[in-house]
Amino acid sequence: MVLSKEAIRQKLAEQPVQLQDGTRLPKLGQGTWFIGNHPDKRQEEIRALRTGIELGMRLVDTAEMYGEGRAESLVGEAVQGIRDEVFLVSKVYPHHADRKQIIRSCENSLKRLQTDRLDLYLLHWRGSVPLSETVEGMERLVEQGKILRWGVSNLDTKDMKELFGLPEGARCAVNQVLYHLGSRGIEFDLLPWQRERCVPTMAYCPLAQAGSLQRGLTEHKTVKEIARKYGLGPLQLLLAWCIRQDDIIAIPKASSEAHVLENAAAVSVRLSEEDLVLLDQAFPPPSRKVPLDIV
Ligand code: NDP
Fold it and tell me: pTM score > 0.85 for this model?
């Protein structure tokens, strides 16, 4: 499917996902896991990220864990001169998420990202540090202006309920979890629970890691047929499916401009009810509680 850059930018701007504080974000952002690991690919990866930002995929997701800081350093280089256009998300390791170390971790991320603040800082997954301590640390970072807001990642419904029961726990802006057509467990209770509280979901692995997380997903007859109907490839269809609702932000990772352009084009498609039913038949939504899928 061929769409001009301007048309993609417009589509992304027209259908924002809104945070509780009113901030409007594009439905498509960009992931960075495994980016920055190969010096010979660095320039292409930077070009890919910048192209995505230019197209309106201006939310960039990274983490101190990715390449032990190498992904953040690459993102820092990519956003030079355009920092204000970008919504920067990074994540703290669970074992750094106590009230003292979280400050140091955040400062180190800021250095690598060559910026003075993060737009969103996430607890990468739940570890042994009590959530109350992490919330305290996050709120301290907000007071210091080092982060503008915070959220969590890989928290299932039970953990989210515990978080929201804490003083200031409900200031959590998003939960970033694994979500793609072949992994729909969150639709049973986590998504509805977050929806009631206006907490958007950030979908990681929206391409099921190019289909490798679930055998047969991209080769499935229904996926291929519906994709063809819209002039999309199977991976683009996965993305269009992921962002079909207005409180889900997908963060596909792509390390080439060509892949970024393909992914961005997924925003042009609104799947029909009939197609969604066919996809439900092929990949049924959960009918009972399923533990959160994690990579
Ligand atoms: P994705 O589902 O985004 O898939 C990434 C893979 O798809 C890469 O191999 C990429 O290849 C390939 N790809 C991208 N676009 C295309 C395309 N148009 N055609 C063919 N192949 C394509 O997996 P990720 O695991 O990267 O998840 C996305 C992001 O979510 C991460 O990068 C990270 O930021 C975040 N994440 C968060 C987690 C958490 O615990 N909070 C866990 C996992 C991910 P190529 O690089 O060659 O373009």
Answer: yes
